[in-house]
Every structure is written in C-alpha cells, then in structure tokens.
Structure prediction request, 672 residues.
Amino acid sequence: MDLYEHQGKELFAQAGIPVAQGRVAFTPDEARAAAEDLGGRVVVKAQVLTGGRGKAGGVKVVDGPGPAQEAAGAILGLDIKGHVTRRLLVEQAVAIAAEYYFSITFDRAAKMPLLMLTTMGGMDVEAVAENHPEALARLHVDPALGYRGFHGQRLMSEAGVPVEERKALAPLLAALYGVFAERDCMLVEVNPLVRLEDGSFLAADAKVTVDDNALFRHPDVEAMRDLAAADPQEQAAREADLAYVKLDGDVGILGNGAGLVMSTVDVIAQVGGRPANFCDVGGGASAEKIATALGIVLSDDKVRSVLFNIFGGITRGDEVAKGLLGALEQTAVRAPIVVRLDGTNAAEGRALLAAAARPEITVEETMLAAAETAVRLAGEGV
Amino acid sequence: MAVIATADTRLVVQGITGREGAFHALRNRAYGTQVVAGVTPGKAGEDVEGIPVFDSVADAVDRAGANTSLVVVPPRFAADAILEAADAGVEQIVCITEGIPAHDMLEVYHYVRPRGIRLLGPNCPGALSPGIANIGIIPAEVFSPGPIGLVSRSGTLTYQIGGELAAAGLGNSTIIGIGGDPVIGTSFIDALDLFEADPATEFIVMVGEIGGTDEEKAAEVIAERITKPVVAYIAGFEAPPGKTMGHAGAIISGSSGTAAAKKAALEAKGVPVGTNPTEAARLVVERLAG
Prediction:
C-alpha cells in the first residue's frame, strides 16, 4: 500500500523525525484556513501517489492565506501522470540550506534492506546513480543484525556528508530505519532530506510503501487507505479478497492462479485484443466467489466479452462449471463469456456447461482458441 | 532419481489438523509419499487417518523420523512454523502459505539458508516427482514421469505448461514450484543446479514472471554452468508498472522486473523463450526432436 506524503510524514512524526508543520486540505477554503493557522510563507503540495509533482505544477510556494487559496484552486483537479489531485498538504515553508536524498528499499535480490544516501538530493535518484554513481552511497543491512550506529557513519562518510553535519543527521537515519523495520515497509524514501539554515535536518518529502501482507499488524495504516481515489473495481475486489488489476481494454479476464491469469492477459494481447483487467479468483472458486468476480469484471463499462480461463488442479472443473452456472443464475450477464476448462474433471465440467446450454457461454478447448474467440466477440459488440 | 520429493522423503505436515492441512496430507500420502507425522500444538496423541499428530516438529523428528516439513498454517504463524522446523533439524521445508509479511521472511531466510536447510516457497505449490512422491498441492493427475525438470514461480501456470507437455507425450522428473513471493527460499538458480545434478532430468523448463531479477541471474548461471538444455517462458508482458499482479512478488518496480527484460536476458544467453505457454511447449518438443 502506497501512502500519501502527509500520511508518510505522520508515521515519521510518530517516530520523532522532524517534518514541517502542515495541514491536509481538500478544498481551497480549507487550504486558506490552513495557511492562516500556520502563518507566514507556506508550500501547497498536491497529494498524489506518483512522482514528478513539481514539474507538473503540483507544488507552489506562496505568501499568506489568499495566495494559498488561489494556489489550491489551481492544483486541485490537476492531472499528474493520470492521478487526479483531490487533496493537498499545506506546509510551513522552511529555510533550506542543502538538499540530500535518503532511502531504504527492500532489496529482493540481496534479501536485505538497502540504504542509499547522497548529498545530491532534490532530483531523480536514478539519474544520480547513472551520472554520478560515486556520489550515491549504498549499504545493505543484515536483517539479523538490524540497523546499528556504524551503518549511518559509514554511509555518511561514503556519501561525503561534511563531518560537522553528521551528528545532526545520524539520529534521523536511524529513526527512518526504525519506521522501515517497525512499519513493515517495502520503501521509505526522503527526497529531499533537507539541512536547514540552523544546521538541523528535516524530512521535506515522504514516499512510503507498506507491505500489504503486513497490514494486519498496522490497522492505523490500513485506515489511511483513500477509498475515494481507488478504482471502483479494484476497491470492490479488495473487499471480496480477489486479486484484480484494472487495465484499459475491452476483454474481461478471469482465471485461477496469478501466473495463469497474467499469461491469459498476455495471450489476449498477442491475438490482437485489449485486456480489460487481471482478475484471479484463486483456488476453490465457489459459486458465490465466481459471481462476485464476474460482477466486478462486468461492472467495468468497457468490457464487451469475458474470458474465463481455468486450469483445474485442486480446483475441480465440475465445481467451477457449477459455480459459473450458479453465478449466471444470480447475476444477469450483459456480455458473452468464453470458458476454457482444463485439468481435473474438466470433461465433467464441460459436459455440465453443454447440458445447461446457456446462450451467453461459449466453450473452447484451449487457451489460445478461447482467447481468439473472446477477442472476436469483443469486436462484434454486445 | 528425482529432487526434493523423493522416495527418501519422510514428511511431517505442520497444521495437519486444519482443513487444508489434513486434505493435502492425505492426498500426498495417497500418492505414495511417506507422510510420517503431523504437528498441531496442543493436539499430541491424536491422529489424522492413522498419521500421528505431535505437539512440536522436534517430536516429529525424534519419534517419527521426519526429514521434510510441509507448512500449511495461516500467514501470521507461518514464519514461526518454518523457524520451528529449521530449529528441529529437518533437511527440507516446503511452505505453501501465501501472505507472509516480507519482513518476516527476511529473518527466516537468513536463519535457514546458512544452516544448509532447503526452504521451498513460501506461496508455492510444492514439489512433485511423478510416480515417486508429492509434497504439497500440485495436482499429480496432470503429470507423468519423464525427463523434463520443470521449475516455476506460479502454480496454475505450471499445470498449464505441464498439461501442454503431457499432450505432446512428455513427462517430468520433478516439478518444483518456487513460489510467487518477493523473498523465497529456493531460487531459479538453486533449482537449475538441482536439475543439473539429477540423473533423471535431461531437459529443463523454467517458468518465470514479472518482478525481481531472479530470471536475469538464472540466465547468467545457465550460460556459466548448466549443460542441460533449457527452455523458458515468462508471464506478464502486458502487466502495468507498479501494480501487484496477484503474487506479492509480481510487480514491476520502476524500470526493473519487466517480462521483456527477462526474455532479452535469457535469449542473450541462448535460452529460447516462449511468449505463451503453447509456444513454450512447442519449443521444448522441437528441441527434443532436434
């Protein structure tokens, strides 16, 4: 789960990491009130789950409530890389002396957290890594050991942080690692991590991703989820415990198992179609679950045909067929469904579908044939 | 011969008194696997259709001679279950459980690996050596004995490709499901090394997907030390960046982990890559015929 900047900063503040005073605003009026509260110069920042806000005009430094209100009006509704701005963070402007970068990523290959620090902050870190690799200090932390003081010292030395700054920076690095470890993060990134004119440090941005599988340990983080911004289908799927990802085509896709469904999405594209979604109904696949999944896939108005691809393992083909037929009893279906059933008890399942003779169902023997039929039906329209 | 699931496997099922645990323990036994024990804390002395239940894995090792554990317990308890099995001295641990927090798995990985214990998974379907033994949830009906070692990050996709190979009359030495999580105990490289050393395996099929760089690393190893022919398939060419595609580990982060990059890395080392399961199976048939 990706957090907004203001949510990440909430976790930072709880861990004692300095952040600027700020308020969340959803309207220009609220932004005005926030600026009044905070006083003086403020920064109005779009809260979106993507980078590149500055370039897109999503960050404005202004003096006082009136200009803050005006800036909020300009930023709210702004489309930043496909993310529409619906909330703002209004923050006290700070006196920046230098911009650094610090991140902790979950390095899958090394199976260890990876710390990265550079004094060349405020810009794209991938560009720093490419153009000034010597300026980017990298260090793994052995999970059994955890973060120790020497990690920070070594990192600051290798990044060329001036000696007189290290005493102020070290506790911040340690506290950020604390957030990463205690909050089950997959990513904690602070860009920029700023040195103020008084020599202290402050996290001026926060990019935090928390492991979905660990949210049961962090109900306060789960409660931060922005239901309004979520895609309606993705939200409904999450509530039904289905893995669903919205794509932008017209062939709806359901199947059992993440790999098989990913593969089905590929095959639809390979035969010239446009996948509308990825939807994994998982093992077992009761009638109720299939009905829910089918309902979610069809609630996307763009969907003009559905491919239901099942390779029965523990999941039995006859049970899947019963589930699908039961689902059709419960839900009116507005698009043709192409079914491909293979594996355990597939013949029995196909026989059940044939006997039911539902006009909305076409049965195909192979994944490729099913994909071709689904694409053809989508082209013909409903 | 075969790997992981062998005639010498003496299996203890952790979570055997649960619905899933009992179901798969009995299926594995019916297939011919030696299922010697089950573990559920507090249920020592019971049995599941003749399989004795113990309070701890240590007891299952001491009193029933278990050497391999199958972990079928809920995600909140699974990391602890794996550590218990490692601590009790089993040689192999197969973890089916999906949804274990990634940070828990970091700890588990760094405890298990230096001790020389094989961990397969988590979030994997297990290992099946057709005609010999089945550990986990792979549907044995799809597969028959043969010369092809199959290793995959995905369960149902493995069945799909196994089914396509079976339709072409080809069977398997062992099918290894390594799992769809970001942190897994057995990598593609580990599986390739196992197959390279296994006399029953003549040919290797590797099924990858988006996320991480394990396929790219495997490509290097194939060029370096795998003498048996390898064919690959990668899923997720159409996956959008930043979205988790069902498996916790199937996510393109920035520009890293794309299917296209994996395909290119493998092909650069001479490994043919199918762009769909049917094409992958055809590549295998062609190589075997040629």
Remarks:
- The first helix of chain A runs from residue 5 to 14.
- Residues 21-93 of chain A form a domain with the Dna Ligase; domain 1 fold (CATH 3.30.1490.20).
- Chain A touches chain B through 50 residues (CB under 8 Å).
- Chain A has a mean pLDDT of 93.
